[in-house]
Design goal:
single chain, about 600 residues, alpha+beta, 15-stranded antiparallel β-sheet, three-stranded antiparallel β-sheet, 15 helices, globular
């Protein structure tokens, strides 16, 4: 089979939608196939994973037998519950996919992936195929039917309890299959429940979920998500995309700890067939702080408080122990491994789990932490004395380390350099720390902080600035541009309408624009191959232009970036403008949070002009 033929088996990334219970996530294709699912955590080994290897990865599919059907889909309004309508010449059915929420609260996960089919008109013949493959396709679990009618799949330290309204055929002790006709008004139900193998028998003994209980789970889950969504508050009429972004960000949270994952997947490529394939199922401090800030601006306070607690626990309350990312359970060791038995999405290898960048020095996170603490204080919340002790340690570390090189916001896998964005975020840590100490009368070495703050400003405005062009540059003594420079005004280092910032913004539009969307930078990064445009950067540009009063340009870039979402409002990390297709991990939290921030900036300028 040719490479092209093999590639055609993989749906475009945009064909997927996600479901979540704030513990687990799954990707469901437009064809009704669960092609990616990790339980009991978002960063756990996959149970279904043909997203990364069509033959070995495993899947759970419900789709019409008759070819040539038409499928449309949407999320039930205000939820993470997916509704897919299959239309065939013989009739129509509706497929619902969701992770069931427990009636006792979000902190009691059920680990139930529920799939419900409702007959709408006529009679549609459906095929059901359940082919789990554990540990990223390396383990084929043993499938077994029990006298109670439940099916189990067990392998290694993973297990699934499978319950269906319709009889399923066990195929070679590894798969389940059935064909069923669904007429109008008929409902069939399928529940896939995660359980560790040693508790499988006791779970079976407790009894199977009856139809009424599954139907109640549908209604309760819908009510839970609708209630969360209804609490959104914004200085504009909340639009479809902003609400969908907020819900997606919530779905990426890990309820048990308060951590927020960057994306639901690993190793979706930044260029098809390329090697820029990374695991994004961890909690980046920077991205998470962006997220809680945006959710806070939309009226969601609890998420910010939970993440504060997560960072303090995970770092052991010490700046020396602070990493740029953690596992969603707080784990520090995220050893990067290449899974050489997987061919990768559309033959994009290697497939990686873990992330070596966890051990990089990226000094911008110091600024993000202190900036968030200041905003928390400015919004009327108390700063805990123990957390202040942690922040003092962070700011003192900035005084010691800011003259060093780092790997920067883009965690480039090359020798560290003096990134301007990192330096400015160190300045922000000092600046906000000084403001907090003075405002709250906290004990701190303020004079030392002031001295370092001034030295940092001088360094940035001399070595990080090109006087000939009158613009800021990517790194000290460099000529390259970087979209991260668009974030400098956000922390007060420079005003949005300062002529230097306006010139920098214009230069970025000229040098980094690709068909109305921005790439990250124009420097080399020591990695083979190319990448697509980086969608968050375009939204950062929108924010910058809006704050500069360039309303029309801002809206033009915003609409262009918005068009890169798929039909249910999900964004990837990157985008191929030549083939108009998604690239990178999906859904990408940083893109969604940047969309919200840009929309808030546009609302501010629109309200100001009224």
């Amino acid at each position: 089979m040719s490479t092209l033929d093999t590639d055609s088996r993989y749906p475009p990334i945009a064909e997927y939608a996600t479901v979540s219970d704030c513990h687990c996530m799954a990707l469901v294709s437009r064809a009704g196939s669960v092609d990616w699912c990790c339980m009991p955590r978002i960063d756990d080994d996959s149970l279904f994973g043909r997203l990364l290897d069509w033959d070995k990865g495993g899947f759970c599919a419900i789709s019409p037998v008759e070819k040539g059907y038409v499928s449309t889909r949407r999320y039930l309004p205000g939820t993470m519950m997916l509704e897919t309508r299959f239309c065939t010449p013989a009739g129509e059915v509706m497929l619902y996919d969701f992770f069931a929420m427990d009636e006792d609260g979000l902190e009691h996960p059920r680990y139930d992936l529920v799939r419900i089919v409702d007959g709408i008109t006529g009679e549609v013949e459906l095929s059901l195929d359940i082919c789990p493959r554990f540990d990223y396709g390396e383990i084929v679990p043993r499938m077994q039917r029990h006298p109670s009618g439940v099916y189990t799949a067990i392998g290694s330290n993973k297990g699934l309890l499978i319950h269906s309204d319709v009889p399923l055929k066990v195929i070679e002790h590894r798969d389940l299959s059935a064909t069923v006709r669904v007429a109008a008004s008929r409902r069939i139900r399928l529940v896939l429940k995660f359980q560790v193998p040693e508790l499988i028998e006791s779970a079976i003994a407790h009894g199977l979920p009856d139809q009424a209980k599954i139907d109640r789970a549908f209604e309760h889950t819908r009510a839970w998500w609708s209630d969360w969504s209804a609490r959104i508050r914004a200085p504009f009429e909340v639009d479809f995309q902003t609400l969908r972004s907020a819900i997606t960000l919530k779905s990426l949270t890990f309820e048990r700890t308060g951590a927020i994952a960057a994306a639901a997947t690993t190793s979706l490529p930044e260029s098809i067939g390329g090697q820029r394939n990374w695991d994004y199922r961890f909690s980046w401090v920077r991205d998470s702080l962006f997220t809680v800030r945006a959710l806070h601006d939309l009226g969601y306070v609890r998420e910010a408080d939970r993440f504060h607690q997560f960072i303090e626990r995970s770092s052991a309350g010490s700046a020396d122990e602070l990493q740029i990312m953690y596992g969603v359970d707080g784990k520090r060791r995220l050893t990067e491994i290449e899974l050489d038995w997987l061919e990768g999405y559309r033959r994009s290898r290697p497939v990686r789990i873990g992330n070596r960048a966890a051990k990089q020095l990226q000094m911008d996170i110091y600024g993000e932490l202190v900036e968030m603490a200041w905003e928390w204080h400015a919004n009327g919340h108390q700063t805990d004395p123990d957390y202040w002790t942690f922040l003092v340690d962070v700011i003192d570390t900035v005084c010691e380390r800011w003259p060093d090189r780092d790997h920067g916001i883009w965690e480039v896998r090359a020798e560290p350099v003096h990134y301007v964005h990192s330096k400015v975020m160190c300045w922000a840590a000092l600046n906000r720390g000084i403001m907090l100490a003075k405002d709250k009368q906290f004990k701190a070495p303020v004079e030392r902080w002031i001295k370092n703050r001034e030295e940092l400003r001088v360094a940035v405005e001399t070595r990080g600035y090109d006087p000939q062009r009158g613009i800021f540059v990517q790194a000290f003594d460099s000529n390259c541009l970087d979209a991260a420079l668009l974030l400098l005004p956000r922390v007060g280092f420079i005003a949005y309408d300062d002529p230097r910032m306006q010139r920098t913004t214009d230069a970025i539009c000229i040098k980094l624009d690709r068909h109305g969307l921005l790439v990250r930078y124009d420097s080399t990064d020591n990695l083979p191959g190319n990448e697509g445009v980086f969608l968050p950067c375009t939204f950062w540009l929108v924010t910058c232009l809006a704050r500069q009063g360039q309303r029309e340009r801002a809206w033009q870039y915003y609409e262009r970036a918005l068009s890169c979402a798929n039909d249910v409002g999900l964004f990837s990390e990157e985008f191929d403008v030549d083939n108009w297709s998604m690239l990178g991990n999906f859904p990408q939290g940083l893109t969604h949070v940047s969309q919200i921030t840009a929309r808030l900036a546009l609302a501010a300028i629109d309200n100001h002009s009224k």
